[in-house]
Amino acid sequence: MHIEKVLNNNAFISLDKDGEEIIVMGRGIAFGKKGNQDVDLSNFKYKIFSNKDKNLNDKLITTVSEIPEEYIGITTKIVSIFENTYNRKLDDVIYVSLTEHIHGAIERYNNGIQINNPLILDIKRLFSQEYDTAKKALEIIKEEFGVEFNDDEAGYIAHHIVNAELNNDMSNIVNITKIMHEILNIIKYHFKVEFDEETVSYYRFVTHLKFFAQRVFNKSAYEDNETDLFNILKVKYEKSYMCTNKIKDFIEHKYQYTLSDEEQLYLIIHIERIVTKSTV
Hints:
4 strands, PTS-regulatory domain, PRD, 11 helices, about 280 residues, alpha+beta, 3 domains, four-stranded antiparallel β-sheet, Transcription Regulation, Sacy, Chain A
């Protein structure tokens, strides 16, 4: 591949077949190279950022050019851990947002500044997979920089992962977390149970809630394709349907979002599963 401009040892700018600018990243991929030279990509593991989002590409070029390359290397490791462990893709925005966050967090650490995370308990409960990945990220950061962060920082890194997972703005994640927390509380008090947060059913439900809460906050309509099954299950699982109806009324009143039959159907199924696995 032809190099138009070297950004650092691990990244360069090239052109695709349509002459559009792309960014190619990989460990050591541009080491010892200069603009107007070629590189054999078969010798490297690499990622290509296309020009679909020029604003993101411009931000990435700025990030790669201005922040030491080891920081984006850490982000790349974190993304790889999450995607390979949970088989879920993260939006490319994380290469900008998380790299800049980690760089800023280490600068604050070196200046004796620590920021508490008021949402840390909710993050652990609602985004456990993202939080577990963030804890591994702290180990990578400690190994690379000798900096030892606490759980608050793991919470912030987890938020960036959730943001990239939902392709949402960081400020919206707080609202999405709030909606998830409210729904879980409705279920908890309706059935007077405590959730077993270690079960597969709970993990699956909070994953479902994450995307449901995003639709509520973004007012993204969900088409009805399962009305017949919904009518069957609301009779079969009457108690879970009654709880779902409470959630429906709450969401409509507070967030002006009307749940489709299909959304209610999936809530009934998930509620039935987690309540069965929960303790009174």
